[in-house]
Structures are given as C-alpha cells and as structure tokens.
Design goal:
Layout (H helix, E strand, L loop, with lengths): L1 H30 L18 H23 L6 H35 L5 H35 L3 H33 L16 H39 L1
Helix pairs in contact: 2-4, 2-5, 3-4, 3-6, 4-5, 5-6
Length: 245
C-alpha cells in the first residue's frame, strides 16, 4: 500500500509538471499584445474617413431620392413596384448582414491562425476597404424598404422597425465607422516599427506594451459599439420582414 501511494503521488507530480509549462504558455499568450499579429504596417489610406462619406453620397443619396418618390409620389409608383422594391431592399440588408456575422469570424480566425503572413492586420485592412461600401449598401437597402413600404402601408410596425435599422446604419456609416478606421490605424501602425514583422517576436518595452493595450481598449470600445448597432439594425430588419410576411 505504501509503495502504491508513492507511485500515485509520483504520477500526480509528473502530470502537474507536464501541465505547468502549458499553463504558463497560455498566460504568456494572454499577456502578449502582439498575439495573432504579423507585425506588418497597414497602408495609411485604409485609415482615411473619406470613403465612408463618398460612398454615402454616391450610393445612399440616389437611394434616398428613389425612396422618397416611392413614399410620397404615389402617382409615379404603383403598389406592386413599391412592394417589390421594399422586399428587395430589406432582403439585401438582412442577407448581407447575416453573411457578415457568419463569415466575418471565420475570416478573422484564418488570418490569426496564419499570422506569419496574414495576421490581424490583413483582416482589419479587408474590413477598412470593404466597410464603407458595405454600410452604404445596408443603409440604401433600408431606405428602399422604408420608402416602398411607407408608400403602400403608411406608418405601421414594419415601418418603425426598418426606421430603427436605418437610423443605426446611418450612425455606423457617419460616426462609428470613420472613428473605427482611425483608431484601427493608430493601434496597428504605432508599434509596427518596433516589432519584427512576420515572426511574432515582440520587441516592445513594458511601457510600449501598456500604451498598445490602451489603444486596443479604445479601438475595442468603438468597434464593440459599431457591432452592437449593426446587430440591433439587423434585428430591426428581421422584424420588418416578419411583419410584412
């Protein structure tokens, strides 16, 4: 019995010794602000706010004009046209939003798992390049749904639901999106010259790491607010589609 207890204790110590490095490694990764990054700088053009406003002007304004005709000029648009445009607009806004929620996280996972040549920088660059047009088309879809439905049914539950989706989409394209791009560039490029790109070897001092963590926090707040507005907007579009079904 005594020897059995010794063997059991030895096995437990061996297991603890084997687990300790893995635990320390996980802690090290959690404390490493460069985890999942390639270290490559993002071109400054992707931090500009201009594309949000130019896409809004090029895409949303024509959609707003057409939606106004559907809503307030019934002699120029019959009921079938109003319903068709409203359904297409809401369906696009909802479908593209669901696509982003499904495949956005997958793209992020692929980029971070291949951080040596992609990393979080690649994912954020793709977002910065695509989001101005993405949000502009989302807003335009909601505008068409609102105009087409209001022209036929007036102010009912569906109208209110799509109005909420529209308002939150405008908040993203006019305020949170531009803020997000600027903070993203500041977060990624401020330390790109201090790390060794492509091999995940941080060369940051403790003070620089703390500054980077603060920038990540500021970016995370705005990004989280933007995603929350997006999800609520998507829910509003879903309520609209259910209400008109």
């Amino acid at each position: 019995p005594y020897s059995s207890r010794l063997k059991l204790g030895g096995c437990m110590l061996a297991k603890c010794a084997a687990c300790k490095p893995a635990h320390q490694m996980g802690k090290h990764q959690d404390d490493n602000p460069m985890e999942g990054r390639s270290g490559h700088a993002i071109p400054a053009e992707f931090g500009e706010v201009g594309p949000y406003f130019s896409k809004a002007a090029m895409i949303c304004l024509p959609a707003a004009l057409f939606a106004s005709v559907l809503a307030f000029a019934p002699t120029m648009a019959n009921a079938k046209l109003c319903r068709a445009v409203a359904q297409v607009g809401a369906s696009y806004a909802f479908g593209s939003g669901v696509w982003l929620l499904r495949y956005g996280p997958r793209m992020f996972k692929v980029c971070t798992e291949n951080a040596q040549w992609l990393g979080k920088e690649a994912f954020s660059t793709i977002q910065a390049a695509c989001f101005p047009e993405f949000f502009a088309l989302q807003v335009s879809g909601c505008l068409l749904a609102l105009g087409g439905h209001f022209g036929v049914s007036g102010c009912d539950l569906a109208t209110k639901a799509i109005s909420v989706a529209l308002a939150l989409g405008l908040l993203n394209i006019c305020v949170l999106g531009p803020m997000n791009n600027a903070r993203m560039i500041d977060m990624y490029n401020s330390s790109s010259s201090e790390i060794e790109g492509g091999n995940q070897t941080p060369l940051l001092s403790d003070e620089a790491k703390e500054r980077l963590k603060q920038k990540r926090k500021r970016f995370g707040i705005v990004h989280g607010m933007s995603m929350l507005m997006f999800v609520i907007s998507l829910a509003g579009t879903f309520v609209y589609l259910v209400a008109v079904a």
